[in-house]
Structures are given as C-alpha cells and as structure tokens.
Design brief:
Number of strands of chain A: 4
Number of helices of chain B: 10
Shape of chain B: elongated
Shape of chain A: elongated
Largest sheet of chain B: 2 strands, antiparallel
Largest interface: A-B, 65 and 64 residues
Number of strands of chain B: 2
Helix content of chain B: 55-70%
Strand order of the largest sheet of chain A: 2-1-3-4
Order of helices and strands of chain B: HEEHHHHHHHHH
Number of helices of chain A: 13
Oligomer: heterodimer
Structural class of chain B: mainly alpha
Number of domains of chain A: 2
Helix content of chain A: 55-70%
Radius of gyration of chain B: 22 Å
Strand content of chain A: 5-15%
Structural class of chain A: alpha/beta
Distance between the termini of chain B: 66 Å
Number of domains of chain B: 1
Largest sheet of chain A: 4 strands, mixed
Radius of gyration of chain A: 27 Å
Order of helices and strands of chain A: HHEHEHEEHHHHHHHHH
Strand content of chain B: under 5%
Chain lengths: 337, 231
Amino acid sequence: MFRRIGNLLAKDLIYSRRENILVYSMIGMLVLVVGTLFFLPSLEQMDVFFAVDGSVPPEVARQLEAYGQVEYYAGYDLLRERVLEFDDVAGIYYYGGEYIVLLEGNEESYVRELPGIILDRILQGEDLVELSTISLGRERSPVREYTAVFFLLSMFLIGGLFIGLSIIDDRQSGTIRALAVTPINVVEYMIGKSVLGLLVVVALTLAVATILLGPATINYPLLLISVAASLGVAIFIGFLIGLVSNNMVTAIGIVKVVALPISGVPVAALFLPDRLKWVLYLFPNYWSFEAFNRMFIRTDLPLAPVNLVAALFSLGLVAVLVSRFGRKLRLTVKGGE
Amino acid sequence: MDEARLEEGISFWNTAGNLGQPVTYRQELLRPASEKPPFNLNLLPMLLALEVAMLGFFFVAALVFQEKEEGSIRAFRVSPAGTWPYILSKAVSNVLLSLLYGVLLFVFTIGLRPELPAVLLLVALAGFLMTTVGLTIGVFFKSLSEFVYILAGIMVVISLPVVSYFLPSFRAAFFPFIPTYPLMFGIRELIFSTGKTGFYLPMLLILAAEVLVILVLSRVVVERKLMKEGH
C-alpha cells in the first residue's frame, strides 16, 4: 500500500516539477504575501483624510496633520472636485471668518462628524469635556491578523487546486486508465494524490503566518492542529475540481465557483449579525475561519471545540468523497476514460 | 469664493452637540443624503465588477492553453486569419459570456431596471479589457497549471479595492489605478444613485482608452509568442 502511494507521490512530484507548479504556487504566493506587508501599514494606521483648501491658515492645517492625512488644494473648485470623488473625504475651507466642512452628503457618519469635532478642538484649544479612558487590552487594529486569516484560508484553495490539477493531468494523460489494471484502490489513489497538495497547504500556512504575524506571536503546534483539522476542505476542493473537470477550462470554471464561498463565507462571518450566523455553520470553511479567528484575534474564546467541528467536517467531506466520488472514480477507471 | 457658491450646496449651521458652546465651523453639503441600499443588494455592484467583468480574465488563458494542447493554434497559424481576428474572437466571446452572466445576476437580484444597459456597457468594456490583459499575460506561460497561480495573485490585487468599498474613507494611493476601483463605485452609483453626475462618460472613455492600449500591446505579444513560436 505505502509503495503504491509512494509511486503516486513520486509521479506528482515529477508532474509538479515539469509544470513548475511547486515554484509558482509557493513563490507566487509568498511574493504576494510580502507585497501585502507593504500595503498593511496604511490599513493599520487608517487615518481620517482631510482635503484642505489654501484658504485655511497654515497653522490650523498643520494641526490637522496631527489628526489625519491632509491633502492640499488650491481653490474651492478643486476642493469640491476632490470631495465629490468616490471615496469619503471631508473638505475644509475658510470663508467669511468661519471654517466650513465641505461634504458630499452621503459620507459615513464618522466622516461627517469627526472633522468638525477636530476643528472645534483645534480652534478652541481646550477639551470641551473631560474624558477618562479604560483600555480593553487591544492596543492596535486587528487588520493584520484578519489579513493573515484570509490568506491562510485561501491556502486551502491553493492546495485544492494543486490536487485538482494533478488529477486532471492523470485523466488527460490516461494514467487513470493505466491504474485500472493495477491493484491500487480508490482510497490509496486519494491519499497518493492529496499528500503533496496538503504539504503545500501546511508549508504555505506556516510561511504566510510567520511572514505576516511574526514568529513570536504564533503558537506553531496549535496552528498545525488547526490546519490539520481543516485539511478536508483542500481535499474536497481538489477532488471536486479533478473529478468534475475533464479539462482545464472546466477546472477554471469550478475554481471560480468554489472561490466565491471560500472568500465570501469569512467576509459574511464578519458582517452578518449573530442571529443569522447559523447559516454559515453549514460551510466547512466557516469553522476554519473561526479556528484562525480564535487563534489570532478572539483569543478569549475557546479554540478546541471549533477545531473539533472543523475536523468532523473534514472527515465528513472525505467520507463523502470516498463513498460518492469514489464510486465514480472506480467506474471511470474500470470503464476506461 | 462668493456667497453664491455656498448656496450651490445645502448649507446649514451645525448646532449639534458641543454642550452649548459656540461652534467654530459649519457644514456645507453638496447633495442631500440618499437612502443607503441594504447590505445584501450593496454586494451586487461588487459582484458585477469582480465576478462578471473579470470572467474573461480567467477563461481566456484557459482557452489559449487548451488550444495549444489540442494543436488548434498550429492550425490557426496556417489559416488566412491573422492575429487581430484571433484576439478579437477571444475578447468578444468572453464579453458575451460576461454579459449573459451579468444580465442573469442583475435581473435575478434587483429585477429589470432602466440602468441595466448602462451597467452592461461598463461591464462589457471592463470585460474586454480584462480578457485582453489575461491573454497578454497568459501567452508568456507554458501551461495553465503554471499560470493559474499567477492568475490567483493578480486576482487578489484586482480585489484589493473591496477594502475601500466597505470602508469608503480609506483609499490607498494606487487604488484608482486598479480598474475594479472605479468600476465598483461606478456601477453602484448607476444602480443606487446618490445624485453624482458626470462620472459615467469619463469612466467609459478611460476604459475605452485602456482597451485600445492593451489591444495594441496584446497584438504585439500574441504575434510574437503565439503566432510565430513553434508551440
């Protein structure tokens, strides 16, 4: 059994080397993650933007810079043009002895209110009310952690794609037909086809988490447990791509369809109200998201139950593959491609 | 700056809050606030820009690699058809696919509405652009297995403006140069109008100019990499 699985693995290695898949999947993703590192600081320090007209006295404009990013415009028309652009930015100009906050009218409430409050503070030079603050322990924005979680989840798609492309290659090259006359069974075939893809998932998740969050903040054994609990997602995606698609065009179509819940479920988990979240419980990648969420952001919530559900989902998905798609694969092998 | 200009907008004195202290500013609203679309419908412009318009970007590379494997490219080289018909046939077929997808998504989400043609025109131009971009990049790769990971990376970059879509006060300096940024907001403005005017024609013209530039580039690249090499 192990020899047969080893042979399939060796064949996959040759295929991935021939097509440069390992290079492109690993290096491509890592380049993307490193690129994200340059983009993250601007998201983490998300400032209020002010579009300031030249009529605003320089000392006031300078003080505004302490509260947000200031863009300077020469004249009302340019200022108006900037405020009317698609993003939410407040304009400030000085006219007839008073400051005017120029707004498009559909901005978010904080964009409408903050510039005025800040102007008040700058011009009156004193706090209007005395405030005391209590820290809840979160010292910075969790944007970096959320970005890492989204990247980690997409690695399951990358791993699944890896498995799927390899199965399509087997179908197109006639390998599956050849395997029909060998003693290999469907479970061995599934293990042999999944090993390399799953190793890619594990390697990429470790690398991505390390690059984005830094080794000091990661509990590697726990991360490995969470990744292992969700590996069924990658296997399911891979075999879905490999078994439904006869060629690359169909595979791309499947990837597009699968990518929607893969990226949509975590986004929905962030924005859906709690009373509707039960809808997401049906998606296996919701539990993967929740596991990473509890590992890096909501560390106050227990991780083990979520990992357990993710693992059960993984086992369930693999069982579905073995029983349902396994039959299809065996038929395909016996019937000849 | 004169008083008449101030009256162009809806101006009012801000009297809210401040514990009775005199306020030091007032607000000028250029337009009255419009009703915000519900969250689920607000996703439609994003899906039209990222899913529908970008469809060709995925499929054109798959078509080219399939043709390479089947040997159709070799047959095409000895046929009287040239590079332009090859590029345009790919672009047009993918745009038609995007339009079909777009109509179904639009109609089944918000019904048949008068702004549909304007939305579809934007989707068609963006689809044409992205199909040609996919073709131009795709010809540099040996197989789809190689290209698919690069494609995934490009898709991530193209999807970045989603951050601004959900957090409109944030706009990275390079966002306006990513075609999906104006596309998402433009489609949203067409469907859920806030009264913004004068954005549609410039958006169409910019997209058309981008299409022309990338078409020329694509012609050069496809001619060199696909029509002349012994694939």
